[in-house]
Design goal:
Length: 119
């Protein structure tokens, strides 16, 4: 099985649940505490490519930093990438990556799509 990474916030219940689902299936992912070790703009670009979503969908729009960064649903990809790099709290969580694919673990069971298993 290829290496799995999880962009994890241990204070987030959904992130903890997604991590538990992986561990229950014998997966020991590389845990990236993105608030302590923020992703670079290049890493965020890579995540967006692997997630295959609209850039705004990677944002936590209810965070104060969203308004502080001047973001809106019409913000450009570059503005969103730079905002997440500057304010990592804006990154929707958890993001789980395996190879060339990634999912946002909301609901947490979505991470199982990367394993090819069901809940």
């Amino acid at each position: 099985m290829s290496e799995i990474r999880i962009y994890h916030n241990p204070r987030c219940s959904k992130s903890r649940q997604a991590l538990s689902l992986l561990e229950e299936r014998g997966v020991e992912p590389q845990i990236i505490r993105y608030l302590d070790d923020p992703p670079s703009a290049a890493t965020i670009e890579e995540l967006l490519d692997k997630l295959d979503i609209e850039p705004h969908d990677l944002l936590r729009s209810k965070e104060a930093a969203y308004k502080e960064a001047g973001l809106s649903p019409d913000s450009s990809r570059a503005a969103i990438v730079n905002a997440i790099a500057s304010f990592p709290i804006l990154l929707e969580r958890p993001v789980v990556v395996r190879g060339e694919r990634a999912v946002i673990g909301r609901p947490p069971e979505r991470v199982l799509d990367l394993l090819g298993t069901q809940p």
